[in-house]
Amino acid sequence: MSRLSYVLKYLTVIGILGFYGIAASAECRDFDAIAAANAKAASYFKDGEVFHPAVVQKVHNTSGRKEIASYIKTGEKRYSIFTLVDAECKVKFRKRTRQGD
């Protein structure tokens, strides 16, 4: 095996490992995504608080975004807040529903 061939194989392996390392570290973990979504959901109300653990409902494989359902109560009213959390743990509001009367 020539020296050039050895160097090219070495650089290819290093490049692949580097790519996977960057891809793995760029993902927002479920725990962090849930915490960010809950904080955003509670911020829409003066005295909003979580009354049920949030749920990761869907993970988009291509973009890494996660759909999170947060459950917030304020007084006697209970709401489900649905958000999208991207790979950097930035939260986007999607919709709100009110549970019961």
Topology:
Blueprint: H1 3-25, H2 30-42, E1 49-59, E2 66-74, E3 77-85, E4 91-99
Q: Average pLDDT across residues?
A: 84
Helical stretch count?
Answer: 2
Please give the alpha-carbon distance between the first and last residues.
76 Å
Helix content: 25-40%
Our estimate of the beta-strand percent is 35-45%
Order of strands in the sheet with the most strands?
A: 1-2-3-4
pLDDT < 50 runs, ≥5 residues: none
Please summarize the sheet with the most strands: 4 strands, antiparallel
Order of helices and strands: HHEEEE
* Annotation, overall tally of beta strands: 4
Overall shape: it is rod-shaped
Secondary structure category: alpha+beta
Instruction: Please give the radius of gyration in angstroms.
Output: 21 Å
